[in-house]
């Protein structure tokens, strides 16, 4: 089929549809962030480049071509967090990452151990909520959180309710920042977390909750935020915030989120014990 100066075949139609689907998924990924505006601006420049090339505007095509070639590298730098999230989503949607062979040889045992107790964490959050004590607790899953752990004070202690409460106490020098739990241990306190830049977050959301969302955006860790003003418990997972949930709901959501990796760890521990 030929339309004017364009020769269109069914393969071209399929190519356009697949590209449109890919662009929609990318836009959905960056929607609500500052990066979305940069993405739309770059997309408009690229469309202008395609039109100029098709019409035969050589000078404009050359100028826009240089801009796009340099802009591609800039986009990789600007969208590094979004690209990481995109690849993480793809990895989560495949069964390869959860296969027995992949788990045994490639996955590092650096998170969400089956022995990681949720009960002392839930009990501590319940006490913090009832006493209007603010706090931020991060529980690792698969991703390595060492770069965030290094920003705080290293502890390497057993997970216990009284220890968590003493860390977030108003008289404690460790109360500012986040507590990071990994491999059945409280790895560090007073850790610095990335702040989410999502434009869709309510302006009334405090920095503690923005930090919880931020760490859940750049890693697969779960973050619990307790408000000092209202005592409400919130849970951030995969960039989504579940505000004002009860301790029972917190335990249920955390259990479901960590159940997959816990099953893998139990299977591997049982296999190692039988050797």
Describe this protein's structure.
The chain has 275 residues and is an alpha+beta fold. It has 2 domains: 2-91, no CATH class; 119-274, DNA integrity scanning protein, DisA, N-terminal domain (YojJ-like (1, 3-Layer(aba) Sandwich), CATH 3.40.1700. Helices cover 54% and strands 16% of the residues. It has a 7-stranded mixed beta sheet with strand order 4-6-5-3-7-8-9. A two-stranded antiparallel ribbon has the order 1-2. Strand 7 (222-226) and strand 8 (233-237) form a beta hairpin. Helix 2 (34-55) packs antiparallel against helix 3 (58-78). Residues 95-114 have low confidence and may be disordered. InterPro entries: C-di-AMP_synthase, CdaA, CdaA_N, DisA, DNA_integrity_DisA_N_sf, DNA_integrity_scan_DisA_N. Keywords: ATP-binding, Cell membrane, Membrane, Nucleotide-binding, Nucleotidyltransferase, Transferase, Transmembrane, Transmembrane helix. Pfam families: CdaA_N (PF19293), DAC (PF02457). One of its GO terms (molecular function) is diadenylate cyclase activity.
